[in-house]
Design goal:
8 helices, binds flavin-adenine dinucleotide, FAD/NAD(P)-binding domain, alpha/beta
């Protein structure tokens, strides 16, 4: 068991790794001992996952070496493991191998799941691609189907949100450039909603649909995946089942709370996310006697003021939240662990309601702000690669 002085961070993706980065800044390069736990030592760059899957980006070269960065921070260590349970009273986490870690401060950044719901018959054949293991499986299936194919290969993407549209667009773009030996797939995008990228407004929905259809994507709205078998899938539309060809089925139908969140004994929302206050603390009891447990990133919903805050669940949100967590940890760390003078006031998170979106649609590319979209071919691809390079540079190992 580690010393109770440490800051224990569970999860090392966008939120967890940024908390480490912000702690280094908040403590002028000498943070208190930090332990970070994650099942993955490296993280494929999710905003360009569609390019990684379609062979446009080298999967190895587009991975963050998370462990190497964390271990370069003075006094920090990385533990590769599967978080199984958490005891809030003793601030102790239990890993799948039975080992335990405890910290004076705990930050939960265990994110979201991205899997097809089990109600789909044959859900195990629907490939998600968020974690590294799932990504490798999806890439293997795509390669297996497209490499050397003589007949048209049908790929079904499920989900009409940003991720589904971007993946369908990138798959469609394989009709132009593609890895040597690959055939171009026939792409079908199946969306449960009555419009694509609904949250971005009707104008953008229509633009996105037009852009995808012009590149040969079959878009099926108000349609739900019902079953997947070898080489075909059933979809439900207007109350009737239709069978469609499907060599590969890829899931982009939305995120759900990571399964482990339910086993942490921390307050949850009705839909299973961790409920935190605006200071990003998990208030384990109503009297707020345990100020040392924080959570941030996709795993949380902020409950305060007029109810649940509509945060973005995007990489930029992780950065903003990590800044708040690190600043609050610094404030608390300056106090004795039992807070004899009471818990000092902490900094609340600021809700940002508007931010621009980049929407890559194969050969097309929309920059979206407040319901308006500028169609600038290629701009997202170039800009997001630049962002990826900034991201990797931000977390490059500190000089020893
Ligand atoms: C397909 C896709 C595309 C996206 N594209 C964009 C984009 O273009 N721009 C953008 O801003 N955002 C994008 N997002 C959203 C962005 O990726 C998330 O907001 C971000 O990943 C959230 O980071 P997080 O650290 O909170 O959680 P996650 O990224 O979910 O990370 C959780 C971490 O916890 C670990 N973990 C979970 N459970 C356990 C356990 N039991 N034991 C050990 N480790 C565990 C995981 O290995 C992972 O490292 C995209 C998301 C998806 C799914």
């Amino acid at each position: 068991m580690s010393s109770a002085d440490e800051i224990l961070i569970l999860g090392a993706s966008f939120a967890g790794v940024e908390v480490v980065y912000q702690l280094v800044r908040a403590f002028d390069g000498r943070p208190p001992p930090i332990v970070v736990v994650d099942r993955q030592e490296s993280h494929g760059y999710l905003p360009l996952v569609q390019e990684r899957l379609c062979g446009v980006l080298d999967p190895e070269a587009s991975k963050l070496r998370t462990r190497a960065f964390i271990e370069s921070v003075p006094g920090a260590r990385f533990v590769r493991g599967e978080v199984e349970a958490f005891d809030a009273a003793s601030k102790t986490v239990t890993l799948a191998d039975g080992s335990r870690l405890t910290g004076r401060f705990v930050v939960v950044a265990l994110g979201s799941g991205f899997d097809a719901p089990a109600v789909i018959d044959g859900a195990q054949h629907v490939l998600a691609y968020k974690g590294e293991a799932a990504f490798d499986e999806a890439l293997g299936a795509l390669e297996g189907a497209l490499d050397g194919a003589q007949e048209p290969v049908d790929v079904v993407v499920v989900g009409g949100g940003i991720s589904g549209c971007e993946l369908a667009g990138e798959l469609a773009a394989l009709s132009g450039q593609r890895p040597a030996g690959w055939a171009a797939p026939r792409v079908r995008l199946v969306a449960g909603a009555s419009a694509l990228v609904e949250g971005l407004g009707a104008r953008i929905s229509a633009k996105a649909q037009r852009a995808l259809e012009r590149q040969g994507v079959t878009v099926e709205l108000s349609t739900r995946l019902s079953a997947v078998r070898d080489g075909e899938a059933d979809v439900l539309r207007e109350g009737a089942l239709h069978t469609v060809p499907a060599a590969v089925v890829l899931w982009a139908g939305g995120i759900q709370p990571a399964s482990v969140l339910a086993r942490l004994g921390l307050p949850q929302t009705r839909t299973g996310w961790l409920a935190v206050g605006p200071t990003l603390q998990c208030f384990v009891d109503a009297s707020m006697t345990r100020p040392d447990i924080f959570a941030c990133g996709d795993a949380v919903r902020i409950c305060g003021g007029e109810g649940q805050w509509d945060t973005m669940q995007r990489a930029i949100e992780c950065i903003w939240q990590a800044q708040v967590v690190a600043s609050n940890l610094r404030t608390l760390h300056a106090e004795p662990a039992d807070y004899p003078e009471g818990v000092p006031p902490l900094r609340p998170h600021t809700l940002r309601e508007e931010f621009f979106y980049g929407l890559s649609l194969g050969a097309r590319s929309l920059v979206v702000y407040r319901g308006f979209g500028l169609d600038v071919p290629g701009v997202n691809h170039r800009f997001r690669r630049w962002l990826m390079r900034q991201y990797f540079a931000r977390y490059s190992p500190l000089p020893g």
